[in-house]
Amino acid sequence: MWHGHSFTVERSINSYGLGSKFAVSYDSATKLASGTITELPAHVAAYTVIPKPFLQGLLSQFGLLVIAGAFDLPAGKLLNARFPEIEPLKVKDIIGTWKGKE
Q: What's the CA angle centered on 15, arms 87 and 100, to 5 degrees?
């Protein structure tokens, strides 16, 4: 029986050599619970329309939801388990198809 919604996932996603180097940081649950996040360059421009405390508070709540697993796909609906012989397309393969074709 097919579920109303089914998913396939790739378990490991990283930068796949997109040609850009960037710093990686991890905000702890404690930091997020305090309503602060690591500021990204795009946030500074956003502060002209969204006050910094509001934006950081909103994004910190989003981070806490991620930690809590609120956005995890339900394992029971993963097609990966039902059809292990089918290998999902990898993100790096998708990126490889369009990389350099801007």
A: 90
The distance from CA 27 to its chain's CA centroid, rounded to whole angstroms, is 14
Whether this prediction's pTM lies above 0.70 is answered by no
User: Which one-letter amino acid corresponds to residue 53?
Assistant: P
In angstroms, rounded to a whole number, what is the distance separating the alpha carbons of residues 60 and 86? 37
Output the pLDDT for position 75: 74
DSSP state letters, 38-79? PPPHHHHHHTTTS-HHHHHHHHHHHHHHHHHTTTPPPGGGBH
Select from 69, 47, 71 the least CA-distant residue to 57.
47
CA distance 15 to 22: 10
Q: Is 31 helix (H, G, I), strand (E, B) or coil?
A: helix
